[in-house]
Amino acid sequence: MTLQGLRCFVAVAKYSSYAAAAKQLYISQPAVTHQIQQLERDLNIRLLDRSRSLVRLTPAGAIFYSDVIRILEQLDMAVNQIQSSEHFTEMLSIGYESTIQLPNLPYIYKEFQKRCPDVCVSNSEIPATERKKLFQSRLLDIAFFSKAGIEGMAGIKYTTLFRGHFCCVLPDNHRLVGRQEILPEDLAGETLIFIDALHCPPEMEPIQDELRRKCRNIRLYLSSSSIATAAMIQGGLGIAVMPDYVCPHAQNLITIPYCTSHQAEYGLAWHKGDVSHKVKQFVRIACQAYCKTF
Fold first, then answer.
1. DSSP code of 27?
2. d(CA 288, CA 115)
3. For residue 258, what is the DSSP state?
4. CA–CA separation, 213 and 61 (whole Å)
5. Which pTM does this prediction carry?
6. Residue 52's pLDDT is what?
7. Tens digit of pLDDT per residue, the chain (294 long)?
8. Which of 112, 209, 216, 272 could form a disulfide with 188 if both were Cys (CB 3.0 to 4.6 A apart)?
9. Beta pairing, strands 156-164 & 264-271
10. Is 144 left (phi over 0), alpha (psi -120 to 50) or beta?
11. Which pLDDT does position 53 carry in this prediction?
């Protein structure tokens, strides 16, 4: 088993394509195929189901993918820390899911650099489950989470930066356009786009469960992110319910409030015993960016 083999496996799983993986890794497609075959021989288990048009993870492959993502993320962080150590006195490791939730992140980084110029910022875009593991292992100093994402976590401090509500995102020619609010029963018979189990953030899990229970005769498509979901909606594949702070801004898409008792909150977590200047400054700047006090 080699590091190159693991990176090839992750790329193929991510893009569902050997050709796309090869392009991303700057190697030939036969080389990617060879690496995957060798990895499956080493493990004595099939990781990927192949067809002419699509590559999918097997159940075993899905489990392995989750662990490999974490391992490679830890390795990349370790390499980054070593390479940065010559130029900076400290490192601040930050994890988040996607910058789409955090429009104020550029301001936060700019202000942090002014106040802590000797601190190297290492930021990683990581799905919620892996971000939680890395944070609890103290491989992240700070992590952005939804409030639902910190449930069960001990020894942390958390501040909510902003609150949102859930919306239904539709093409501008959809039959429900013009409604003031969307009820679950309004979505009967629709094709809904859900976030898949590997990438579903905690705040979306109760919403997707609610939609399964309350919406009759729905069809489901799966997506890996809110960005991918927006593209699917624009392509006419279906509609989706998501927090307003990740709703796409596009001329041909409409957002309408979705009626639910579930709330969406997003904030910042750091370790309770960490009283370092770098962490205090980052939290303070983040709170200021969202008009909060710290």
1. S
2. 14
3. B
4. 29
5. 0.66
6. 65
7. 888 888 888 888 888 888 888 888 889 988 988 988 998 888 888 888 887 667 888 888 888 888 888 888 878 877 776 666 556 678 899 998 876 678 899 999 999 999 999 888 888 888 888 888 899 999 999 999 999 889 889 999 999 999 999 999 999 999 999 999 999 999 999 999 999 888 888 899 999 999 999 999 999 999 988 888 999 999 999 999 999 988 888 889 999 999 999 988 999 999 999 999 999 999 999 999 998 776
8. 216
9. antiparallel
10. beta
11. 67
User: Which regions of the chain does DSSP assign to beta strands (E)?
Assistant: 48-50, 55-57, 90-96, 119-125, 142-146, 156-164, 166-171, 191-195, 219-223, 240-243, 253-257, 264-271
- Identify residue 268 by its one-letter amino acid code: L
Q: Could you tell me the CA-to-CA distances from 280 to 93, 97, 127, 220, 275 in Å, in that order?
A: 14, 22, 25, 44, 7
Beta-bridge partners for 258: 182
DSSP state of 235: T
Among the residues of 44-115, which ranges form H helices? 59-84, 105-115
pLDDT at position 49 is 84
CA distances from 110 to 77, 117, 286 (A): 21, 10, 11
What Å distances lie between residue 140 and 7, 94, 123, 234, CA to CA?
A: 22, 6, 9, 36
Give the bridge partners for 142, in sequence order: 94, 270
All residues at 6 or more sequence positions from 156 whose CB lies less than 8 Å from its CB, including other chains: 135, 150, 269, 270, 271, 272
List CB contacts of 7: < 8 A, sequence separation 6 or more: 25, 72
The answer to whether residues 119 and 88 touch, using CB atoms and an 8 Å cutoff, is: yes
From residue 12, alpha-carbon distances to 17, 25, 50, 124, 131 in Å are 5, 10, 11, 20, 22
